[in-house]
Amino acid sequence: MLNWLRTLLGRVRADPDTIPETLWQHTLAQYPFLAQRAAAEQSQLRTLAGQFLAGKEFSGAQGLVVTDEMAVAIAAQACLPVLHLGLDYYDDFKGIVVHPGAMLARREVMDDSGVVHRYSEVLLGEAMERGPVTLSWQDVAAAGESASQGYNVVVHEFIHKIDMRDGTANGCPPLPSRTAREAWQAVMQPAYDDFREQVAMAERFGGAPPWLDSYAATSPAEFFAVTCEAYFVNRPRFAQDFAALAGLFDEYFRRNRLSTQ
Predict the structure, then answer these.
(1) What SS3 state is found at 109?
(2) Does an H or E element contain 127, and which?
(3) Sequence-separated contacts (24+) of 34-38 with Cβ below 8 Å
(4) Pairing state of beta strands 116-123 and 133-136?
(5) Looking at residue 247, which CATH number applies to its domain?
(6) Residue at 260 is within a domain
(7) Domain interval for residue 80
(8) Could you report the per-residue pLDDT of 71-117, keeping only the tens digit for each?
(9) By the 8 A CB rule, do 102 and 125 touch?
């Protein structure tokens, strides 16, 4: 980390410094989906990102040095989903581990017969329940360009963090009542089913592939994370294919406030 962030982390965390103007303008230039937001939202995002940085600990893996520019880029994108919700959604962890690129995770699962299967999985990011977030800097750095495809690894992993606030990630964020959760699922489930059908038609019968990554079809939690990526970085294109979800996400992310957790 460079001078500004070192200085910030040494101060009283209740009164974080503002991200320097030059550094903030550099971030906006690198990520047009941030620069395209209204001036009031940009100002709010800048403040929130500064508070986020004051409360998190960044570390680089495989010898990577996390610079001010890298930390601010991650913070600004991570704060998009909680711009109107508040940073309380991220108060269950501190660590953010940044890898130069994709990482190899070793997995171990036991099947119904009690046989243990070990395998390796290539990851671009990972969010652990009440644990750190891991990110590929290569993908974070390319987020300005990949927004046209609705792709953003930072938003994806931090949506998982929001999803986990009320338990295991299941594609439904914290909501105040059973009625609210049922209303959420009434919109989300048909959209998920339709997307899975589109993916199946493309893979099995040569149908038109979906605009979004087919990985979204693997589970409701991944569908929530992948669709939120597109919603936050390319809402106009997202709304063409997911008009109902765009409205649902507008209602949740722009108006909701964190209730008792």
Answers:
(1) strand
(2) strand 125-127
(3) 34/76, 34/77, 34/80
(4) unpaired
(5) 1.10.472.150
(6) no
(7) 3-255
(8) 999 999 999 999 999 999 999 999 999 999 877 555 455 556 666 54
(9) no
